[in-house]
Amino acid sequence: MGIRIRVADFVQTLIAAIAVGSLYALVALGYTLVYGVLKFINFAHSDIFVLGTWTSLTAAVVITNKMGIEPEHAPWWVAMCVFLLAIAMCATFGYCIERFAYRPLRGAPRLNVLITAIGVSLLLQNVGQLPGKTVAESGGSPAATIPFGAIPRNMPALIEDRVLNETSVAEGTMAGGSKRGTVKLDQNLTIEAERQYRIEYVKPPAADAPAGAQSSIETLNVVVAEPGTIAAGEEISTQPRRNAKDVEGTKYRVLRSPLVPIRLIDVLIVTGSIGLMIGLQILVFKTKLGRAMRAVSHSVETASLMGINTNAVISFTFVLGSALAAAAAFLYPLKYPLVNQTAHGIWVLLGLKAFVAAVVGGIGNVRGAVLGGFLIALIEFFGSRYVSTELRDVYVFGLLILVLLLRPSGLLGSTAREKV
Amino acid sequence: MSALLEVKDLVVKYGAIEALHGISLTVNQGEIVSLIGSNGAGKTTTLRAISGIRRAASGSIVFNGADISRQAAHAIVRSGLVQSPEGRGVFPNMTVAENLDLGAFIRNDHAEIAKDLERALGLFPRLRERMGQMAGTLSGGEQQMLAMARAMLTKPRLLLLDEPSLGLAPQIVQTIFKIIREINASGTTILLVEQNARMALQVSHRAYVLETGKIVNQGDAKELASSDVVRKAYLGH
C-alpha cells in the first residue's frame, strides 16, 4: 500500500472514532450528570438511550407511513419532529424514573438505590420487547409496534447518507448505442488508482407517468479493474445494469470518490454532539441553573440553605441527561440502521462503554465524560483497525483497568476530597 | 417586642436516638440571641431543624407567624430565615464570586443585590481581593467570612449563625463578632450558636444554655455571664 493510502486509512479511522466517540460522550454525560448530583450510577441510563432509538424508529416509520412517502424523500422537518419526539419521550421517562423509583429512596442506603437502578433497567429492557400493538403496517405486516417487540428493525433513512467531498471529473451527455449494462460517454475519462467512480444521470419521468412527475437522479457505479484512460465512445461496464436506451442522451456527470470520504451522517453526528456539549458547558458553568446544579453536586444540604429547590434541580438533571441520551439515540441509528430489540446484549455493551467513558474521564466531571467518550472510541477503533478486531471490547475495558490503577478518580476527576 | 421565631417542645431524632428532648426558645425581632453549650449538646441539630434540613419528630417552629416545621428547606430560606452553616459550608470548587452569587440565588432585584454585595464586601474587605479565587483555597477565617457574607446576600430577616468562631485565631474571632454586631445593628435579627460562650454572651441580648438536648438555663446574656453555674461550666472561672 502506498503512503497516501495508509494516511487516508488512518484519517478515515480517526473520523469514525470521532463520530462514535461523540455519541459515547453524549451518553456518558448522562451518567456523569446524575452521579454529580446524587452520587450514584443510574444503570437505567443506557435503557433510556435504547428507548430513544426505538422512539426515533417508531416515530419515523409512523410519520412516513401516514404521509405515504419514502423515508429518503421525507422533508427535513420530519427528521426534526422525530428528534424532538425522542427527546420528549426520554426526558419524560428520565423524570418519572427519578420521581417514582429513586426519590422515595433519597435517605436510604446507597446499595438500595443501586439495586433499584438495576431493577428499573431490567424492567425497561423487558417491557420494551414485549409483543406490541401495531401502529404502522407495510405490505400487510407490522412495521412498528408499541412496545417495540422482539425482532430487530431497520431505522428508515430519514437523512440519506452521502459522501460530501466527491470530485466531479466529467460532465456531458451520454452517447448512444451501448448494450445493456454498459454506457458510453461523450468524452475521455481518466481512471486513477484506488478511487471509485460513479455516474449520476438525470432520468426523465417515464412515458406513462402521470402529468407533473419529476425527473430523478440515478446513480451507476463504474466497474473498472485497471487505472488508465477510457476513450470517448468506449463501453464502460456499470452496476446496476440499465438498458442502453434508458440512459442514452441523458445529462450525466462522473464523480470520483475522495481518498478520505467525509459522510453527511458523520458530519451531522459530530457537529450536533459538539454543539450540545458546548451548550451543556455553558449551561453548567455560566448560568444560574448550572450554578445551582454544581451547588447540589457539592452538597444537597448546603444548596438547600441557599434557597435552591434541590429536588427540582435533581429532576432537571435527570431530564437533561435523558435528553442528551435521546439526541445520541436519534443520531446513532442514522449511522448504524439496525435497531436491535431492547434487551439485546449489544445495548448493554454500548451502555457499559459510555459508563466506562464517564469513569475514565472522572465520574461527576462534565469535561471528563467528553474526554472519556472520545478516548474510548479512539482506542476501540484504532485497536481494532491496526491490531485485532476481535479484541475491540478488550481495549476499552483494558483502558478502564489501567485508569483505575493509575488514577482511580479518573483523568479529570478531583482527588478524594480532603476532610479538614 | 414581638417574637420573630418561636420554637416549642422541639424533638429531633436520629433513628431511635433522641437528640433534642423538647426544647423551646424564642427570638424577638431585632435581638441577638445565642444558644450556648458544649460539644454534642444539640446546638447544630437545633439549627438544622429550624432550617428544615432535619425534620422535627414533634413540636412546632413558628417563624413570622407561620409554622415552618413541615416546610422544605428552600422554602424556609425564601421566607427570610437564612442559615450560615458551620465553618466550611462554602462551595470549595466555586470561586468566591460564584459563592456570593449563590447567596443571592433567590433574588432577582439586581440593583439591590449589587448594593448588598458592596455592603457585604465593605464588612469583609478581604473577600474583595479574593473574588476570582476558588473558595476551597481560602483560609478558615476567610471561609467563615465568605459564608457570612453569602448569607447576608440572601437578605435574611433572621440569620442563623452556626459556630462562626470555630477553629479561628483569636484576632479573627474578635473581627467576626464585631461584624455580627454590625449586621444586627443594621436590622437583622440573629440566632447565634456558639461553643465560645464568653464571646457569645458578650454580643447577645439573651441566651439559652443547651445541655444534652435540653435547655437548662436561659435569660439575659449579662446575667447569665455572671451566674455561677454558667461561669463554672462554660467560662472556665
**Count of individual beta strands of chain B:** 10
- On the 0 to 100 scale, the average pLDDT of chain A is 91
Q: Tell me the number of helical segments of chain A per DSSP (H or I, 4 or more residues long).
A: 12
What fraction strand of chain B?
Answer: 25-35%
Radius of gyration of chain B from the CA trace? 17 Å
Walkthrough of the structure:
The complex is a heterodimer of chains A (420) and B (237). Chain A has helices spanning 3-38, 45-67, 76-102, 110-128, 244-247, 264-286, 288-298, 300-305, 310-335, 345-361, 366-386, 392-406; strands spanning 133-138, 141-146, 153-154, 167-173, 182-184, 189-191, 197-203, 216-222, 228-230, 235-239, 251-256, 338-339. Chain A has 420 residues and is of the alpha+beta class. Chain A folds into two domains: 13-159 and 262-406, Orthogonal Bundle (ABC transporter involved in vitamin B12 uptake, BtuC), CATH 1.10.3470; 169-256. Chain A has a six-stranded antiparallel beta sheet. In chain A, strand 1 (133-138) and strand 2 (141-146) form a beta hairpin. Chain B has a domain at 1-73 and 190-230 and 233-237: Rossmann fold. Chain B has a six-stranded mixed beta sheet with strand order 6-7-8-3-9-10, sandwiched between helices. In chain B, strands 2-1-4-5 form a four-stranded antiparallel beta sheet, covered by helices on one side. The longest helix of chain B has 16 residues, at 170-185. At the A-B interface, helix 7 and helix 8 of A face helix 2 and helix 3 of B.
